[in-house]
Amino acid sequence: MIKAIALDLDGTLTNGKKEITPRTRRAIDACIDMGVHIILASGRPTPGIWPVARTLGLDKRGGYMLSYNGAQIVDCRTGQVLAQEVLPREWIGPIAKQASRAGGVPVTYGEDAIYTLDARDQYVQLESRICQLPLRQVEDLGQAVNWDVPKVLVARAPQHMAHVEEQMQQAFAGKLSIYKSSAFFLEVMPLGVEKAQSLRALLTILGLTPEQLMACGDSWNDLSMIELAGLGVAMGNAVPQVKQVANFVTQDNEHDGVAFAIERFIVDNVGNH
After folding, report:
1. Whole-angstrom Cα distance, residue 86 to residue 145?
2. Which of 64, 173, 196, 264 pairs as cysteine with 228 (C-beta 3.0–4.6 A)?
3. For the segment 35-78, what is each residue's pLDDT rounded down to a tens digit?
4. Which residues are part of the catalytic machinery?
5. Could you report the per-residue pLDDT of 182-212, keeping only the tens digit for each?
6. Burial 181-192 (b: 16+ CB within 10 A, else e)
């Protein structure tokens, strides 16, 4: 029986307008009523997930955030950080320089803003809108950022991202975890950080097993949690690699794919357990 649901946000829980539809909200409410744990597992920074968590009432009803692709685990009801991994501060500058050399635009995060070398870049502006955080342009990320950050995001147009990813992988092989979260975003994380690793840790805290987890996602950074979950669900709009490892392919994020999966496997099955 499913006891926890891990939900990616962009391209999964939200539609193209970054909205949670009424049907999806009703399905999640029904899960909470049944005692199912809701886990928002996203590449977004924690401040960029909070608006979604509050929309779902997780700050009052309980739930969890796995932000920065799992580098931080937060209890929505208490705001307590249950676990965190950060990049060594001395690495921020070299990561940013390598990203720039490869043609990408690096960004990282503060509590109230996104810091970047180029606030005019369209993909950086998209990240600002997604996270509902303002942009602050700086000349040197390594000098500007004097606090712990869980990740650096590298933005680049899709047609050039393969080159950026290859250059970053070569430069930091065996030192950092690097993977795409979309066609135009590359995540640079502490080594070993991924959604599955953090979900394992959170499931242990909750006294649950991966077999009791349903995970829904659409992109490359969702692969590990889709593979981990007893029920891995790929969105209809998911990249082919995610669909290949999923147990079930639901409708796309414009047609309530999360709600469709919940209704099929959890809510409609409540009388069967």
Report:
1. 13
2. 196
3. 999 999 999 999 999 999 999 999 999 999 999 999 999 999 99
4. 8
5. 999 999 999 999 999 999 999 999 999 999 9
6. bbebbbbbbbee
